[in-house]
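G., the chain you wanted modeled:
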Amino acid sequence: MHRTAQNSSQKLSDYVQEVCFQELGMFLKSYTTMQIEILEEKAKMDKPETKHFFKTLNNCNKLEQYVQTKAKGILLKETKDHSLFEETMATLRNMEDFTLDLLMKVVANTAKSHLKRYFKSDSKEFSLLIDEVKSLFSELSCCQDIGLQKRVIDEAYKLIVHYYLKYLIKIKESKLRKCGSPNVGQTVAKDAEILHDTFSALAPGVRQWNLMLLKVKELLECESIDATKLTVGSMQTECCTWSEDRKLLPELLKWKGLSGRELTEVLKVLEDLPR
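Predicted structure as tokens:
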């Protein structure tokens, strides 16, 4: 009788927890709908408040941990139907991805706004962008998971480097020299180091996404087509860089001043190199 009572008690406990888990799934549907509306409104602000983004990421992360450690065991033990577990995890991960994507749109808009002005300005105050980045991530600690913090910073770092390179090559090097950058390569390298120091302070050990920018100085100093091939080859094979940045290599070579024939020659060599 004692064993029967134990079995009945365990079944009742598992049933109650499974019902609670179903209620959690229903709550998450309304929660994510509400959060999406709030975050979209925050993103539209002239100066978006990012604290709510980090809190949402933190909530999703904590709930994922709970579901994985508590609810999954119950579902696997009592049922062979994992759809409820999978649906709940998908809801949380989709919300996390949505929040991160929207946050990166905020970062992208901020970067584009500052970089447009930066490359067209005589003052060349790169610190304005850096201050804005620090402000955007001042509440990053609201997201308690270190791995998730690093993921956020990794995405933001990669994105800002991409837009830096993209807006750099839109302005002729000769014009940049006239606008307060007598040594363009050196200025780009200095900015690249500042970016890395900034993002490393926000998330120590973050991946180094500035290597292509650091290579711009070497590229500009190449005086022969063979030297250019070697430098660009190293940019493609050695630099920890985003595929979107690699797509800008042809434009970067045009920006350097390569002729159509020289550009074709260099790009032909790059086709045989690993990516």
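The mean pLDDT is 85.

Shout if anything looks off.
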